[in-house]
């Protein structure tokens, strides 16, 4: 049986931040279970595409694809080796579900690998336990990090911050770097011949 990675998603999560990890981790042989509170396996969540334009004060948002959930919620977090927290607008309301917070807290306490991209940090800040941790996120979320005692690291959108079991990136341009670090934490070594 393939090792399992959990990905918590919801309506208007960022399109690339959902599809990329699902496909990339599946390619590497992980079973990626995508779940959403109040939704069942085979239900769909709507995604949003966030695009960055020079000179704009924030990202532009447009409707993305429908993403099909492949597992039931709630889950037993002890069955998973890692946790993926995509950004977009979904984390702002996913953090209102106690079952979601219990899962995120489990991964923090057990020091299992977590990757949070963009607004995915909101699920970490909602449970706390990040005091003194070096983290990054979409800049609009930096105050949530610092108010919870985390150390906000300003990096480029294509960069990452790794602190122990947590990998963070400000946005989807950092996917290659974020998931390279995440899979290292999962014990995967990628070599070229």
TrEMBL record:
UniProt xrefs under Pfam families: DJ-1_PfpI
Domain DJ-1/PfpI: 4-182
Superkingdom to which the source organism belongs: Eukaryota
Stored InterPro entries: C56_PfpI-like (IPR006286), DJ-1/PfpI (IPR002818)
PANTHER family per the UniProt record, alphabetical: DJ-1 PROTEIN (PTHR42733), DJ-1_THIJ_PFPI FAMILY PROTEIN (PTHR42733:SF2)
Name of the protein described by the UniProt record: DJ-1/PfpI domain-containing protein
């Amino acid at each position: 049986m393939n090792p399992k990675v959990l990905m918590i998603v919801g309506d208007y999560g960022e399109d690339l931040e959902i599809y990329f990890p699902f496909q990339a981790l599946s390619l590497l042989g992980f079973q990626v279970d995508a779940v959403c509170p109040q939704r069942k396996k085979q239900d769909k969540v709507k995604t949003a595409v966030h695009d960055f334009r020079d000179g704009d004060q924030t990202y532009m948002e447009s409707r993305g694809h429908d993403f099909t959930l492949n597992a039931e919620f709630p889950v037993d977090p002890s069955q998973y080796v890692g946790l993926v927290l995509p950004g977009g607008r979904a984390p702002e309301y996913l953090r209102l579900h106690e079952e979601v917070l219990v899962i995120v807290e489990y991964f923090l306490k057990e020091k299992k690998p977590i990757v949070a991209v963009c607004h995915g940090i909101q699920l970490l800040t909602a449970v706390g336990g990040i005091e003194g941790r070096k983290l990054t996120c979409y800049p609009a979320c930096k105050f949530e990090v610092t108010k919870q005692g985390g150390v906000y690291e300003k990096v480029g959108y294509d960069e990452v911050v790794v602190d122990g079991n947590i990998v963070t990136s400000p946005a989807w341009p950092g996917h290659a770097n974020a998931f390279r670090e995440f899979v290292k934490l999962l014990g995967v070594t990628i070599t070229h011949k």
